[in-house]
Amino acid sequence: GRDHGIRSYNDYRALCNLKRASSFDDLSREVPPEVIVRFKRIYTTVDDIDLFPGGMSERPVQGGLVGPTFACIIGIQFRQLRKCDRFWYENEDQGVRFTEAQLGEIRKATLAKLLCENMDVASDIQRAALDQPSDFL
């Protein structure tokens, strides 16, 4: 990522309120030990780790697919997209925003409810429509 001007993995850790690593061993909370060994072989200092290999090496956050650094970056991106979207349904612009009553109705909507009301699947669909069915839960 350096060729595109992307800051180091350690800089993004700091941005995301993770402890800035001063040594490779400081990464042990998020990065498996075998990866830290490889990082030590490849990079001179912890500040040399590029964002992508550093972020991809992190253990996923609970219930997630990415580690804390990438989860933070994705969260920042979505927050900024929403904040800057003048057509976002919860926009504060009085000229285009929904009333509180309308927002209340919108917030009641779910994909499962939409499918149940428009298809013959009412007894076969779970509340979290995009989750895979599981006997475990």
From TrEMBL:
Q: Name one GO molecular function term.
A: peroxidase activity
Keywords, A to Z? Oxidoreductase, Peroxidase
Respond yes or no to whether keyword Heme is given for this record.
Answer: no
InterPro entries, alphabetized: Haem_peroxidase_animal, Haem_peroxidase_sf, Haem_peroxidase_sf_animal
This protein's record includes keyword Endoplasmic reticulum: no
PROSITE patterns from the entry?
Answer: PEROXIDASE_3
Instruction: Name the residues that span the membrane.
Output: none
Coiled-coil annotation reads none
One biological process GO term for this chain?
A: response to oxidative stress
The UniProt entry, under SUPFAM superfamilies, shows: Heme-dependent peroxidases (SSF48113)
Instruction: State what protein this is by name.
Output: Peroxidase
The species this protein was found in: Timema poppense
